[in-house]
Amino acid sequence: MQWLLGLPLALTVAGGALAGEADQWLTRMADALSQTDYQGTLVYLDGSRMETLKVYRSARDSRERLVVLTGSHREIVRDGDTLICIGAGDPTVAYEGSPLAKWEETVSAAQSGMLSEYELVLGDVERVAGYDTQVLALRPHDAFRYGYRLWLESETGLPLRIVLEDGGKGEQPLEQLMFTEVQVGVTPTPGDLRPSIPDFNRHYSLSSLATDAIEVAWTVSGVPAGFVLRSQRHTQTGDHLVYSDGLASVSVYIEPRGDKVQKSSASRAGAVHARAFTLGDQRVFVIGKVPAATIERFARGVVAVDSH
């Protein structure tokens, strides 16, 4: 589970004793994410929208299954390096935007020291889904990124609740995801890990969805502190750049605009902000789960490599 469970595992905290205790909790969290089996029901809140999800995880077999219980039938199954998507939507978007995305990449980024723009603060012990949890806050140093609060199960360190917060608005919750019931340490049955539609033909290789590290014709200058270029890809439709600070990420798409006249626009869906505009004969689209000011900063910095 990535965007909700794929969270940083190494941060610097002021104070020796506090730093040591925080590091111990994050190490346990890393172990739980990679080694703990579980199954349970999640509630996801995004403004006025609420979804209920069922999730199954077998760490030993590297198998996961996510089933959306509200709205249209949507389901994502990961079996090793194979991804199965049931329901409408692009498989790359479904994978990257779901709890099954590759949290391992965020772990690697955190362990390489990318999270200099966040502070980790230990909170209280609280109950979630019947379990005692340790609360941890990831507080950003500036207004270019959101903060998080995590509730880690006391015995394993498994995240049972995650809140995305806008630190610039009194830590106002933007998104919340919480287990309403969960069985930690219980291995799902083989049937629970299989897709509900036998022989479903929308199979994808995770390696084929990975972004190739190649040179492209565009870059972004003056990005906020902490953000670095993590990947770039050139396709038949254009270029795609991904910048990350180890937790937050911003995608920049540059494609030929063609003959159609397109107006500039800004949009928001929950915590996700986006900006679309023309740049010469190119159409640029910037999107990320970051504040609007961050998207504007990236949009202003898009330049061709030759003019940089």
Describe this structure in words.
By secondary structure, this protein is α+β, with helices and mostly antiparallel strands. It has two domains: 16-208, outer membrane lipoprotein receptor (LolB), chain A (Clam), CATH 2.50.20; 211-307, MucB/RseB, C-terminal domain (Phosphorylase Kinase, domain 1, 2-Layer Sandwich). The protein is 17% helix and 44% strand. The protein contains six helices and 19 strands. It has helices at 16-35, 91-96, 103-111, 190-193, 206-209, 292-301; strands at residues 38-46, 49-58, 63-68, 74-79, 82-86, 118-128, 131-140, 147-153, 159-166, 172-184, 203-205, 218-220, 228-234, 239-244, 249-256, 265-269, 272-279, 282-288, 302-304. The protein has an eleven-stranded antiparallel beta sheet. A six-stranded antiparallel beta sheet has the order 13-14-15-18-17-16, with helices on one face. Strand 9 (159-166) and strand 10 form a beta hairpin. It is globular and about 55 Å long. The protein starts with 15 loop residues before the first helix and ends with a strand. The model is unreliable at 1-18, 92-98 and 100-104 (pLDDT under 50).
